[in-house]
Amino acid sequence: MGHGVYLFWIPLGAGGSGFVRFNGRVYEMVRSRLERRPARDLYHTALRVELPEGGYIVETMWPRPDREGDGRGVVADGPVFASWLGFTRIFRYEVRSWRDGVLPDAAEAVGGPRLVISDLEVSRSLLDQAGSVPRLVWGRDEAGVGDMWNSNSVISWLLTRSGVDIETVTAPSAGRAPGWDAGIALAGKPDIRSDV
User: Fold this and answer.
1) Using an 8 Å Cβ cutoff, are 170 and 156 in contact?
2) DSSP assignment of 127-175, as one string?
3) Of 21, 64, 104, 175, which cross-links 41 as Cys (Cβ 3.0–4.6 Å)?
4) Do 99 and 52 contact (CB within 8 A), yes or no?
5) Spatial separation of the C-alpha atoms in residues 186 and 160, rounded to whole Å
6) What confidence tens digit (pLDDT) does each residue in 127-136 have?
7) 52 close to 3: Cβ distance less than 8 angstroms
């Protein structure tokens, strides 16, 4: 793998117990009917940033039971569903920028890792900004951009803010990444709050 930023399009719920995949299908069935369009496959996105000094996994996940976030590169976190629920770990998410980290479902990614950009300056900029992502409530549209904030929002926000031409980044055929548009929209708003 050469230097640069690689994007993974991972089917929602890949490698899990089936709970996330089932809920995603129900969500997409309802959304597609409301929007009068065919249902699509849903994706979760993650990045691998390859630099001369090493590789980094950038992803948003639920916290592990242990509280030692440094070991897995936690650089930010935020509440899930409602800000008042964020006091407990089960209702928080964490943003990781993990050197030599592991992406458990990497093998499930459709098309494998896709090179987004090979520019080292852009790659470093993306890593530098990982801890500055807006810490909005997961699953809500607090900023009123017409799309909910979630893990895909974090990835599209980072790509857009670091200078990647986001128009060239597209989901696999017949698929979509809920939250993707929220990250793009919020990347252009410097006044968006970055903590809760």
Assistant:
1) no
2) HHHGGGS--PPBT--TT-SSS--SHHHHHHHHHHHTT--GGG--PPTTE
3) 175
4) no
5) 9
6) 999 999 999 9
7) yes
